UniProtKB/TrEMBL annotation:
Self-association and partners: Monomer.
Catalyzed chemical reaction(s): Hydrolysis of DNA containing ring-opened 7-methylguanine residues, releasing 2,6-diamino-4-hydroxy-5-(N-methyl)formamidopyrimidine; 2'-deoxyribonucleotide-(2'-deoxyribose 5'-phosphate)-2'-deoxyribonucleotide-DNA = a 3'-end 2'-deoxyribonucleotide-(2,3-dehydro-2,3-deoxyribose 5'-phosphate)-DNA + a 5'-end 5'-phospho-2'-deoxyribonucleoside-DNA + H(+)
Domain (FPG-type) ranges: 239-273
Native source organism of the sequence: Limosilactobacillus caviae
Name under which the protein is recorded: Formamidopyrimidine-DNA glycosylase
Annotated ranges, domain Formamidopyrimidine-DNA glycosylase catalytic: 2-114
Keywords attached to this entry: DNA damage, DNA repair, DNA-binding, Glycosidase, Hydrolase, Lyase, Metal-binding, Multifunctional enzyme, Zinc, Zinc-finger
NCBIfam families: fpg (TIGR00577), PRK01103.1 (NF002211)
Record-stated family: Belongs to the FPG family.
Binding-site list for DNA: H92, R111
Any Pfam family matching the protein: Fapy_DNA_glyco
Cofactor binding: number and manner: Binds 1 zinc ion per subunit.
Keyword DNA repair included in the entry's annotation: yes
Function: Involved in base excision repair of DNA damaged by oxidation or by mutagenic agents. Acts as DNA glycosylase that recognizes and removes damaged bases. Has a preference for oxidized purines, such as 7,8-dihydro-8-oxoguanine (8-oxoG). Has AP (apurinic/apyrimidinic) lyase activity and introduces nicks in the DNA strand. Cleaves the DNA backbone by beta-delta elimination to generate a single-strand break at the site of the removed base with both 3'- and 5'-phosphates.
Length: 276
């Protein structure tokens, strides 16, 4: 699943291939991708221009000239690409926005889990997980007092705590393994047992790691590539995720993979020992 750095990379690409384009027609091949009435969705957007594309957490927010916002969540495998109108589409292409400039924006999703929801601009925070989404992982938004208070309230393990978008927006399986490795915290450590120093370090690691991953255009794993032909390069900089059986880059101990909250989890049993 694309995490924040990958979705931000997609957003930046969409600013180049979709922003400023006026919609001439919309073809919808898999109606469930659209959570609104399909015909209402189509009629509301034909003739409108995409002003810009914003992002909140892992959600893309397409802003239209008629004060409508399309909330798009890629879920497991959703991706956007552009091409000249009438270019090839396959059975995984579910929505095509044709623009007046002769290009089209295609939405492709092999797993079909991605969704688009059209709302009045300003109402987007009532859509799906945006209702309860936590702060963006930036120094200004993701404050130490907030993070500390949330951790103190939780008896659960730290890994699922960080995967929960209410606590901080944008982390998924890859970056949680990375920030826990960076901060030397065991993925099964109960959230409310972290020391003040660990909390401060973990917060810093989250902010730094996601910003760096954005700089490298995200991580390319499995089928995820950012729509525009340039794959992210951050996978070469991962220390934990995908490195089970390899030596820990910090201490040389063999990294192990376990399941935590049903998710494959790689960590160093030496640097990330469970603390009493
Ligand atoms: Zn280690």
């Amino acid at each position: 699943m694309p995490e924040l750095p990958e979705v931000e990379t997609v957003r930046r690409g969409l600013m180049k291939i979709a922003a400023g384009r006026k919609i001439n027609a919309i073809d919808i091949y898999y109606g469930k991708t659209i959570t609104n009435d399909v015909e209402t969705f189509r009629q509301a957007l034909i003739g409108q221009t995409i002003k810009r594309v914003d992002r909140r957490g892992k959600y893309l927010l397409f802003r239209f000239t008629n004060d409508l916002t399309m909330v798009s969540h890629l879920r497991m495998e959703g991706k956007y690409y552009n091409q000249p109108i009438g270019g090839p589409i396959d059975k995984h292409t579910h929505v095509v926005f044709q623009f007046t400039d002769g290009t089209e924006l295609c939405y492709q999703d092999t797993r079909k889990f991605g969704r688009m929801t059209l709302v009045k601009t300003g109402d987007e925070m009532n859509v799906g997980g945006l209702k309860t989404i936590g702060p963006e992982p930036t120094d200004d938004s993701f404050t130490l007092p907030f993070f500390t208070a949330e951790l103190r309230k939780s008896h659960g393990k730290i890994k699922p705590f960080l995967l929960n978008q209410r606590h901080v927006a944008g982390l998924g399986n890859i970056y949680v393994d990375e920030v826990l490795w960076m901060s030397k915290i065991n993925p099964e450590q109960p959230a409310n047992t972290l020391t003040d120093q660990q909390i401060a370090e973990l917060r810093k690691s989250i902010i730094k790691e996601l910003a760096t991953a954005i700089k490298f255009k995200g991580t390319t794993v499995h089928s995820f590539t950012n729509a525009f032909g340039d794959a992210g390069a951050f996978q070469e900089r991962l220390n934990a995720y995908g490195h089970a059986g390899d030596k820990c880059p910090r201490c040389g101990t063999k990294m192990v993979k376990i399941k935590v909250a049903e998710r494959g989890t790689t960590f160093c049993p030496h640097c990330q020992a469970l603390k009493e």
